[in-house]
Amino acid sequence: MKNKDLLKIAEEFGNPVYVYDSEKIIAQYKRLTNAFKQVKNLKVNYAVKALSNINVLKLLTNEGSGLDTVSIQEVQLGLKTGIAPEKIIFTPNGVSISEIEEAVKLGVQINIDNLSVLEQFGSKHPTIPVCIRINPHIMAGGNSNISVGHIDSKFGISIHQMPHLLRIVENTGMNINGIHMHTGSDILDIEVFLYASEILFEAAENFKNLEFLDFGSGFKVPYHENDIETNIEELGEKLSKKFNAFCKKYGKELTLAFEPGKFLVSESGFFLVKVNSIKQTTSTVFAQVDSGFNHLIRPMLYGSKHEIVNITHPTKNKRFYSVVGYICETDTFATNKRIAEITEGDILAFKNAGAYCFSMASNYNSRFRPAEVLWHKGEAKLIRKRETFEDLIANQVEVEL
To answer: Where is the Orn/DAP/Arg decarboxylase 2 C-terminal domain (predicted)?
Structure first.
């Protein structure tokens, strides 16, 4: 997308506003599938939690993607797109057995990561195919909050609990059709995936009726110009060889599955905000914008870095700014960032705003959540309306006091 396209969208739909480039999403999907073209059966399940707008789900399912879901509501969103239930995998954590059984009724693939739940489910539903999420005890990811495969993680069944796991499967007669793992997000070193794959292959040998192995995701995307990223092409070449060799040893052509979220949608997204004022203190120049961490919490929550550009005056000399929001507590998007000189009323674009941005937005400070726009085939399509005061109070119930 060009600056002029983004400026036109800001003018037409107001700001703040999220914008997603469908062409980039499709390109990332094709890049991943091409990297693993040596695998006979490849399945990509888009991680709905990254960006759950139903139009984005439709875009990806139209390309052949399945869906990775973590709540019954995400399952329902997926089904609303018209996708077949068997193309959805349900990978919750810490939910009740009743929620899992609700997913069973909807016909989706179940993925269980808890020995207690596994035993309860297997005793009641021994014939229903189940995938098991393994914790490989590998510390990986760009932040402790998104590293989920280490020894103290709440996710997955410890690889060291395999004897207990196998006893449950044997005693219940369960049908285990998949093995899954996910070590974290923003993983740069492909050796992490290759090392973890050996653990998954070894675990898989304990089960005779597998249909797929799910390697999770966590591929790192570039966050600024010349930033490093996961080498998907190299990973595809090396992991495909290992996977094909394992299938030959196993005696069956299995499906290789991934569940990317950020990799598919992060770079497609732009978050557009308007500068309300420039405020200079004794040591800092603040660019105060018409948004806050209620709309984009990642910098405050994870310390994530989003490249910020002045698309109104991109060629002006760069100066140092701290970009801050309007929430009534510390609300910093960036500190001492070099940005083309900003004046009040300028539109700033936050890049890499496609993943875990709108999906984590809230109404904190009773602010409205912004609109979402899909840039598709050269046309801006509104895919979520900006909230109104009526939306804010829709579920509140007034009582006599």
So the answer is: 18-354
Task: State which of 211, 235, 265 marks the end of a domain.
Answer: 265
Grouping H, G, I as helix, E, B as strand and the rest as coil, residue 239 is helix
| Strand partners for 19 | 270, 373
Q: Is 326 annotated among the ligand-binding residues?
A: no
Tell whether 82 is in a known binding site.
no
Same domain, residue pair 141 and 231: yes
Q: Work out how many domains the chain is built from and give that number.
A: 2
Whether 195 and 158 share a structural domain: yes
Residues in a beta bridge with 289: 275
Tokens matching residue 58: 């439709």
Question: Where do we find the tokens 């709905």?
Answer: 48
147 phi and psi angles, rounded to 5 deg: -100, 115
**Hey, which residues are catalytic here?**
328
Q: How far is CA 358 from CA 34, 215, 294, 386, 396, in A?
A: 29, 26, 9, 12, 23
Which of 265, 292, 325 delimits the end of a domain? Answer: 265
CB-based contacts of 144: which residues, under 8 Å, 6+ apart? none
The reply, when asked if residue 233 is annotated as ligand binding, is no
Angle at 260 between CA 254 and CA 262, to 5 degrees: 170
Alpha-carbon distance of 183 to 121, in angstroms, equals: 25
Residue type, 392: L
Burial bucket for residue 82 (CB in 10 Å: 0-12, 13-18, 19+):
exposed
CATH of the domain at 283: 2.40.37.10
In a domain, 1, yes or no: no
Q: Please give the DSSP secondary-structure letter assigned to residue 139.
A: -
DSSP class per residue in 155-201: SSEEGGGHHHHHHHHHHHT-EEEEEE---BSSB--HHHHHHHHHHHH
Whether 329 has a binding-site annotation, put simply, is: yes
Most distant CA pair in the chain, distance: 72
Q: Are strands 17-21 and 42-47 parallel, antiparallel or unpaired?
A: unpaired
Q: Mean pLDDT of residues grouped by 10 in the chain (401 residues)? A: 96 98 98 97 98 98 97 97 97 93 97 95 95 81 42 80 96 96 75 88 95 92 88 95 97 96 97 97 96 96 93 97 96 96 98 97 97 97 98 96 95
Put simply, whether the predicted model's pTM sits higher than 0.90 gets the answer: yes
Q: How far is CA 283 from the centre of its chain?
A: 37
Which CATH number belongs to the domain containing residue 160 in this structure?
3.20.20.10
